[in-house]
Amino acid sequence: MPSVSTASTGRRTGAPAVERPAHRDGNVLRWLAAYTISMVGDNIYYIALSWAAVRAGSPAQAGAVMAVSSVPRLLLMLGGGTLADRLGPRRVVIGSDAVRCAAVLAVAALFWATSPGLWPLAVLALVFGTVDAVFLPAVGALPARVTSRGQLARVQGMRGLAIRFASVVGAPLGGLGIALGGVAAALGTAGLLMAASVPLLVSVRLRKPPQDAPGDTGGPDGSADAGGSTAWRDLVDGLRYVRRHRVLAPLMLTIALGDLGFMAPLNVGLALLADERGWGASGLGWALAGFSAGAGAASLLLTVRGRLPRAGRTTAYAIIAGAVAIGTLAHVPNVAAAVGVAVLIGLLTGLSGALCSALLQTQADPAYLGRVTAVAGLVSLGLAPLSMPLSAAAIGVWGTGPVFAVSAAVCGLGGVVALAARDLRRVELPR
Q: Would you give the DSSP letter of residue 86?
């Protein structure tokens, strides 16, 4: 199903290539619609799962159910990236969405018929985490197959807007579903939304990978030619490819340090800071809303502009400035100031995150993109969350100020790495 790109048509006819902006490309918009619908379903699923777990067991048991999905995600993510490269990202995304849909609807039916307790929730979380290990790398690799390299930064901005929209819409829909029809209704809604994304994904046309991409062995669906190689050899080859790449290797370290320094203050530290200062739940909510607004503004900027010059330097400076803002957050005098700083953190980290994703997409050989995305996902979803319990314990001993300062230093170090690595510092997004 590959389509001939406008650029290649221009070369063949001698006419100048005219690139269609991603936000006006029906193919991209179908992919974006499928992605958004699926993400709304994800948010409803997580609300329903957490609510059902809390109602069916103790807080410790509920926490265990919510944590179950992270184990297969951590253990299998690299293998999932290899599978996405071997089979093609769209094929893997469609299959993963179908499995997720079937699992969620099965548990919804079980809750409609009876009150089964915790065990089906734990099984569902385990299945979801296992499928996510395949789904997430494929989702990350798919944008490069539906648009041109010059539009990938804009697509990352559009994807960021979709994530914010899904978060804003999904949580209230999940709560409404539980209020009107219980856990079964909420899970059923989530499953149906996941199912609705599949026909849209089927209708998405894939671009043919560049023929001059070094090492590209893409098949007609954008998949790697598995003939003559094993999955293990492909996995090792992908890790070696990332390690030796002059841009991707330092970029992975930049992402790791940035996420390690950012995740704990915003996910755990902010709640503890609000409690320490007496801001209450409303103050915490306003600060989180400010962060979301800033991140949404960064996504909108990339969606409108499509490209920012000096991408490597801009990423580094945004990370360093965001780190300073994180350190400042622990010393703001009131809620209003906290909201203002949170907006700035969202803007800067949203911008650096979207640029990092765009650089991953444009610098990686298409034949390795699933594995490259998996390495980045393993860093963000596997390593960075480990900092949250450690930071919470450290805040209990030393308070918010010192812990936020250390987190800011770790995050800022990611920006320093980006500036110190010459090839990453000088990298540009394609026009």
A: H
